[in-house]
Amino acid sequence: xxxxxxxxxxxxxxxxxxxxxxxxxxxxxxxxxxxxxxxxxxxxxxxxxxxxxxxxxxxxxxxxxxxxxxxxxxxxxxxxxxxxxxxxxxxxxxxxxxxxxxxxxxxxxxxxxxxxxxxxxxxxxxxxxxxxxxxxxxxxxxxxxxxxxxxxxxxxxxxxxxxxxxxxxxxxxxxxxxxxxxxxxxxxxxxxxxxxxxxxxxxxxxxxxxxxxxxxxxxxxxxxxxxxxxxxxxxxxxxxxxxxxxxxxxxxxxxxxxxxxxxxxxxxxxxxxxxxxxxxxxxxxxxxxxxxxxxxxxxxxxxxxxxxxxxxxxxxxx
Length: 318
Prior knowledge:
Structural class: mainly alpha
Helix content: over 70%
Number of helices: 11
Pfam families: BPD_transp_2
Number of domains: 2
Transmembrane segments: 13-32, 53-76, 96-119, 126-149, 161-179, 210-231, 243-259, 266-286, 292-309
Organism: Candidatus Thalassospirochaeta sargassi
Order of helices and strands: HHHHEHHHHEHHH
Shape: globular
Radius of gyration: 20 Å
GO molecular function, one term: transmembrane transporter activity
Subunit structure: The complex is composed of two ATP-binding proteins (LsrA), two transmembrane proteins (LsrC and LsrD) and a solute-binding protein (LsrB).
């Protein structure tokens, strides 16, 4: 009877969480649709918003593994740029294999370096990853030599449907698999809930922190494939410019955290990124200046963080 009541309560919370997210999505859609009926919200527009949401959701999937433990990674943007640069260069010689393996391998290695140095240096992850972000930007700038690297038309299938959707949903499936059916998901959540208790249970804390960073880097590498395929060109970033690429995946990840007790994090992250894509496109349709768009984006991020911290209190960024 107790198990049955718990299951019913969990199911009820899940349904309420889904309806809340869907309700917010519909309200935002109607708001912009009423203001700009001819420039916003057509079926083709909605499909475009969905495809735009796929890219940051993939990176958010990787970021989720570290942020659920109270860690942070400011090098995601530089990882995406450097992985895309290497992927483009290798695709010129090895086609799709060079693009996929090159980007994913570089992204994963960067994640491994981040995790290893964080564990070894024993300083906050924000400080470690900001320093590494600058290094990765410099490496990308040296490799690109100031040139704009263009992806060949023979290897850009991941920029349009259905291949971008297929690749993204493979990433979503892997995230779900790791979170729900492996020790990685169980232990990362345990560490995030109470690291001291998790350590007393015999969990190797440092090992799973490194694994979380590796997964974060892996999914950043996958996003770099979608990014370069969608835009067909990439250039190096310097002076911490790559940090701008961090915030949209971070916002989607906070959606996952805010609703993780009610909804599968992958679903809530995807819906969250879709909401963000709608807001940005809605503001563009209204002719809102870029400065105001950034203000709205910042306010949205603050609102999501507030919602997240209300759901999970006492989280400490390490």
